[in-house]
Specification:
single chain; alpha/beta; 6-stranded mixed β-sheet; globular; binds 1-O-pyrophosphono-5-O-phosphono-alpha-D-ribofuranose
């Protein structure tokens, strides 16, 4: 698996350090308020687990799974809900946790959907932000790292469903995805 990585972009240590800082910031911002953290499957799982574990306050957690139609490495903006939230978010303070915001189309759809359900507040925390690829304007409240427009994998991010369990963010060797086209 590691032999397919061209280079490490964000090390395990850098990830964990930044995640602890984000947890402190979120704790301060939501002080005195109940918080529901919503992770988007599957990519956000690693980040969601480490982020909530770094918080020293109670949080409720829930998950949604969505998939975009179209080619596997490109977002189309048409999103299908594969698993919805278990509970109502009406009147709740909701923080969506994402692994990466790329074009922003997935998140735009989800923000629209969840906003219509009447949460008390709705914010977004993404580990990675690929600003260069953004197609829609989005409010992102917490960003772990800005990343260049390269094929990033690891720590939840996949290529063909693998590499998610790498403990760091790496850049995939181009020959891996070129050879399968
Ligand atoms: C990835 C990622 C975001 C979305 C970002 O999910 O987790 O949800 O793409 O792309 P966008 O900003 O261009 O919409 P993916 O559909 O690959 O599913 P996964 O989380 O199961 O890997």
């Amino acid at each position: 698996m590691r032999e397919d990585v061209a280079r490490i972009l964000i090390s395990e240590e850098e990830l964990q350090q930044r995640i602890r800082a984000l947890a402190r910031q979120i704790e301060a911002d939501y002080a005195g308020k109940p918080l529901l953290v919503v992770g988007l499957l599957k990519g956000a799982v690693n980040f969601m687990v480490d982020l909530t574990r770094a918080m020293q306050r109670p949080v409720a957690i829930d998950f949604m799974a969505v998939s975009s139609y179209g080619a596997s490495t490109e977002s189309s903006g048409i999103v299908r809900i594969e698993k919805d939230l278990n509970d109502s978010i009406e009147g709740k303070h909701v923080l969506i946790v994402e692994d990466i915001v790329d074009t922003g189309l997935t998140l735009k759809y989800i923000l629209g959907l969840l906003n219509r359900r009447g949460p008390a507040s709705l914010r977004v925390c993404t580990l990675l932000n690929k600003q260069e690829r953004r197609l829609v304007d989005l409010p992102i409240d917490y960003i772990g790292f800005d990343v260049p427009n390269e094929f990033v994998i690891g720590y939840g991010l996949d290529y063909n469903q693998i590499y998610r369990n790498l403990p760091f963010i790496g850049v995939l060797k181009p020959e891996i995805y070129m050879s399968e086209k």
